[in-house]
């Protein structure tokens, strides 16, 4: 079951978001439109726009601007994917060739810029300064998080705190913006807005930790990307950080060399060390802790089917395989 199918009231709203997105990919430049459609239609779960809808409904919003707001969040997310795949030289996403693999790096960067700009056009139409403030702040932090991750590549000495700072920026900030802006749009109380902000933040962290776990335990078919991609790029994610901290000196030496060199030459040795140190179990425990914090934040939100769906999503985030 797809996440948007968890709540029958949300399904038609989710379909309206999809229609709105497709109707706003138009451009006088055919390649922009072609690439925009390709990346938007490539099979993502659209979790972030779904969070906008659920947050707004959980805070008893009765208008229609949440459809546009959800599209804004998806356009921004799609732009970051285009840019990320260029930075990482990725060739596979969601089981499909990346846009940069099909059309090259330069068009991918420029179409990403177009989608960012389209998102801000739509925000202006919504006309809520508080929402523009939250999203403009979030996009700044996201960009900083990506740069920080780039600086940390091939660095075997990255700490768990530094890792958390990266994933807060590159992933959790957009989750946080999605849920907080849904509450702002609904003119919810400051307490409810803060509750939704914290829910999005902790859910986003849990989501990214699980993403990083899957790089060491899922198949390419399940993930839609290549196993060991993070290691190939020299990224020290939570499983490696914990394995470095708890492994033997010989194991640490192997991991340090693998992170510094990048590539997947040492992938099997790394997988063996990750298994021996129970690093996956530790990472899963941290993800579940973040999921629990997300659910606890919802105590300030009135009970409803939408709140129930948000709770279910937080639980599903730590159980997913792709």
From TrEMBL:
InterPro entries (alphabetical): Isoprenoid_synthase_dom_sf, Polyprenyl_synt, Polyprenyl_synt_CS
Required co-factors: Mg(2+)
Name of protein: Octaprenyl diphosphate synthase
Entry's family note: Belongs to the FPP/GGPP synthase family.
Catalytic function, reaction form: 5 isopentenyl diphosphate + (2E,6E)-farnesyl diphosphate = all-trans-octaprenyl diphosphate + 5 diphosphate
A Pfam family assignment: polyprenyl_synt
GO molecular function list: all-trans-octaprenyl-diphosphate synthase activity; metal ion binding
Role: Supplies octaprenyl diphosphate, the precursor for the side chain of the isoprenoid quinones ubiquinone and menaquinone.
GO BP field: isoprenoid biosynthetic process
Coiled-coil residue spans: none
Keywords: Magnesium, Metal-binding, Transferase
Keyword Transferase: yes
EC number: 2.5.1.90
Transmembrane segments annotated in the record for this chain: none
